[in-house]
Amino acid sequence: MIVTIDGPAGSGKSTAARDLAARLGYDYLDTGAMYRAVALALGRRQIDLTDLPAVEAALATVQVEALPGRVVLNGEDVSGLIRNPEVSQGASRVAVIPAVRRFLATEQRRVAAGRHIVCEGRDQGTAVFPDAGCKFFLTADPVTRAERRYHELAASGEPISLEEVLQAQVERDARDASRDLAPMRPADDAIVIDTTHLTPDGVLARLEEEVSRRCPPART
């Protein structure tokens, strides 16, 4: 059984997906981390993202594993490196490239095959797993989302202002929503949840309630 949780940065989907997977006994797939890892790989090789043949050729040498608690790129643990703002912005830029989306969608389907899994991202319920048993789309007020991200970065020692976080968020939202292939939007049959005034526990309770109506628990 596949559960998808889509939504923009700062909506709480990563925390919700991890917690829901743990509560249900499902596996967890952080697809955003996979895009960040690809952005890191292409950036390290100084690939011009407008040179689509070069991007596609580079993908043939990229191996990404989104394991529980860590992300491995070509054998290297890059869990910390992929969380900085530059890589996050790079992830949004590579996400508009059709070859990258096809490459990672194939990997995501391969990982999910035959599993009970919670997948979170921006197009999981619309493009990657359109037949998923349960679909959610989380959203929140833009300022609330930026504040959440700012506090997360500040806690990790990242020197960035709230204004910079908000501006980067606006730019990323615009790219994610306007790309030609698999733009970020709720699936027609997704349950939309505004997390602005919800605690993480409140979000988890809403998700678990809906999943329990449709999806069997992995543990017996």
Any overview of this molecule?
This protein has 220 residues and is of the alpha/beta class. It has a single domain (2-208), classed as Rossmann fold (3-Layer(aba) Sandwich). Helices cover 50% and strands 15% of the residues. It has a 5-stranded parallel beta sheet, sandwiched between helices. Strands 3-4-5 form a 3-stranded antiparallel beta sheet, covered by helices on one side. Helix 4 runs parallel beside helix 8. The longest helix is centred in the last third of the chain and has 17 residues, at 162-178. The chain is globular. The two termini are 15 Å apart.
Q: Quick recap of the structure?
A:
With 220 residues, the protein is α/β, with parallel strands linked by helices. It is 50% helix and 15% strand.
Helix-strand blueprint:
Layout: E1 2-6, H1 13-24, E2 27-30, H2 31-44, H3 52-59, E3 64-67, E4 70-73, E5 76-77, H4 85-94, H5 98-112, E6 117-121, H6 124-128, E7 134-139, H7 142-155, H8 162-178, E8 191-194, H9 200-214
Parallel strand pairs: 1-6, 1-7, 2-6, 7-8
Antiparallel strand pairs: 3-4, 4-5
